[in-house]
Protein 1
Amino acid sequence: MSRDNFPSAELTSLQQDLLHELRQNSARAVMFHQFISEQLGLNATDHKCLDYLNRTGPVTAGQLAQLTGLTTGAVTSVIDRLEQTGYVVRDKDPNDRRRVVVKPVPEGSEHISPMFQSVMQSTLRIISQYTDQQLQLILDFIKQCNELTLAEMNKLKKENDSAQ
């Protein structure tokens, strides 16, 4: 087994390097967002849920659970904490007054955006080094990885639910 706990005999050196860098990227992203979360007075889960809300706009708790893969109970706790810290508000759904939607507070985003300005500029510099064809390949790879991650999370939740 390699240093990454993958059967090295079954993988090429390039595949091993790619898997190693993917794990490194994942770990560093978690640590980066944990640092940002601490600066905002949030935990990492709350911060990433707020990111979803800032990108999607108002959603119900159930929709946020679907987007994140979290349980509705966990999402309710996240929303409670985000509301207490002033990053979101609960409001009546304009299409169904019986439902509640969660809305990000614009001032919260204004406070967070500057923290990402440098990393965004650096990422744009990296992206500019690739052709559109290369970017399309990278985009496809990332989308498939994102779908895989959500599917694996749902699979683990189902296994955990059936074990209880």
Protein 2
Amino acid sequence: MSLARPIPETPSQVEFLAATESLKNASAEQILAWAEQRFGAQAAIASSFGAEDVVLIDLASKHAPSLRLFTLDTGRLPSETYELIEVLRNRYGLTVETFFPERERVEALESSKGYFSFRKSIEARKECCGIRKVEPLNRALAGRQAWVTGLRREQSVTRTSVAAVEFDADHGGLLKLNPLVSWSSKDVWAYIQENSLPYNTLHDRGYPSIGCAPCTRAVKPYEDERAGRWWWESAENRECGLHVRG
């Protein structure tokens, strides 16, 4: 009779510091393998199905197959994103845990403030992101021990201080792992091409970063990767609240 794998304890600050030291120069493969050994199915990859997330899904299939996968369906994603999710589901046999915003809150927001309130001010945009992304993320992370993201330092000015291992006090003390933190965009696309991975077709139309359809546009060659996200705001504000920077 096989024994069930014990559920790991919530990581402590001591473990966080130890992991920070031991994984600071680790490769993406090594970080994922560590997450597999330490957390297994109690860790999950948060995916918006951009280029980085496709790489993470492929790497996890090889080095951390027990990790779960979830996405936040805001209700305003481009059709190309849904098409890619189906391709990946079939290719890897994935179960994609999908979290929607609370219906009542979306209905109240759109009924009282219209369909594009997020363009009126930073506060209004953050209200929309809070309803469509932040609250669903809170539910997605409930009961987890760690989560894995595709954050990279090169992506924007708001992400230059991202570390490979972070302590997420906002979600109850989870470990937040960013295996691709030191990868460049060239590294990401080299991996995609070398492994013949599917990817969002919007990338071929000048969209390096893809979120909700009304809040995402193509970028110009001289702009940074996230310049097409909430482009009417300054670069320092282009985060939705999922990744809180201290």
Protein 3
Amino acid sequence: MTFKAPDSLSEQIAHYLAERIIRGELKPAERIQEQKVTQALNVSRGSVREALLILERRHLVTILPRRGAQVTALNEHNVRSLCTLMSELYILLGNAVASAPRSEAELAPFLVIQQRLHAASARQDIKAFVEESFAVMRAAYPFANNPYLQETVENLQPAMSRTYYLALDQRKANMNDFLVLFAQLLEAVVGGDLPRIREVLTQYCERSCTLVLSSLVAG
């Protein structure tokens, strides 16, 4: 496999490994050997090390002294901690869109994403559905205009994608549930209803957390 610009080589390697972790091809606590990745992808060892540092920042791997990198654990404490934090970050983004002056044209990207979510659900395309779910957050970034919030969400997004994928793959979660949530959320955002935004997102994140934990037990 050969990687090319425009993304940096280390970012491309990180993305490749992240996809394998998110899909469960690389298991929790599994060691990622630099030499094997170097040979498999025909890249330098330095680029692989940089990629692993990126994945550590994104909470998909843990780098241990003298033991190298291994896939982070998925346990109850980690899942609950992640869901609690992401719930508040989602609310911040939702409130930013609801509170900002906005035209119909500025809200159009959310409607396009909603259509793509429905299409992915109809195809039962888990990978596309998870990606589109996070496209919602990225569409909200310009309204928030907060680089620190954006950086935090981006670094946590792969770990959250991993939990969503697990729940959907094991049929513990249902895509239609998210579609209902998104419709409710859009209605609250358009109406500028901040308490409703918090209510919808809090309930959804609590339910998602329960479903992910159920998937862990089943796995």
Protein 4
Amino acid sequence: MTANPQILSELNDRSREVFRRVVEGYLGTGDPVGSRTLTRSMSEKVSAATIRNVMQDLEFLGLLEAPHISAGRIPTQSGLRMFVDGLLEAQLGDEDREKIEASLGASEDDVTAMMDRVGSALSGITQGASLVLAPKREAPIKHIEFVSLAADRALVVLVFADGHVENRVFTPPPGQTPSSMREAANLLNAIIEGRTISDLSNLMAEEVSARRQEIDALAHDLIEKGLAAWENEGERSERLIVRGRSNLLGEGADAASLERIRSLFDDLERKRDIADFLSLTEEGEGVRIFIGSENKLFSLSGSSLVVSPYMNADRKIVGAVGVIGPTRLNYGRIVPIVDYTAQLVGRMLSGPKR
């Protein structure tokens, strides 16, 4: 049974407290919470029988479930969602704040290195797996070159005005020749000065159309595929940093759970469904929480994702940071950690460049 979001506001104080304490107990230990345990922690003195009746009502409403006969209760996925949306108390601790700030260090030109440190710090602090979606590089380009590696593989080399060099391997159209690659590069280099990859993508349609008679069809295809290595799948796959996989593969997990988690990370490492993760960063500010099957990318492993986008100086979302863990994550601690990390990354990316 799926819980109605309005149910929480309709619960009386006793039912709300029982629900909150069951969820908090489960998030803390991973074990079902029984009525006798709750009698020792309730704010009012009530019998175990009374608490059992309340728990049965909450089970009927779809907020709790009993994993075993005569066991305590654990929250359902709907119950976890209701707790996160309506009862979660999140506050960033001083120790976590200091660890996050120390991991980023001073502002620097090497954004990739900074993002790698952010990912390692997030996985270390939260004991989960971290995902960091690095920002696109928007520095002006100085030079572009296509290099043939094999009949079905080519390399795009970008030299940025600040001296940074990046390359991507892609599959060129059939029948490419060294001359067609030179022609494609010459066209791009003639219009590239002072422009970013985004600028180039916007200009290519009109430039190719205006000079169509000068460009051999193969060179045209090569240009389109070469730029796609940055703007589409190639760009996305290289921008995703995953750290802390071993945190989800520790001792105590059953074989089926381990296999589901391995499958999740195999998918990530093969860069499947990365578009789904990217889309999470395009739907507005603030931390978003996906529990279990709520997000297709993580439904197989039964994991939760806490993710927050970060912005550049123009208040444009350019990337995201997140943490994957079991559905019984300590949301009250993880949410502010992810939120603060995203804010800090945004401030550092927006800061003055030397």
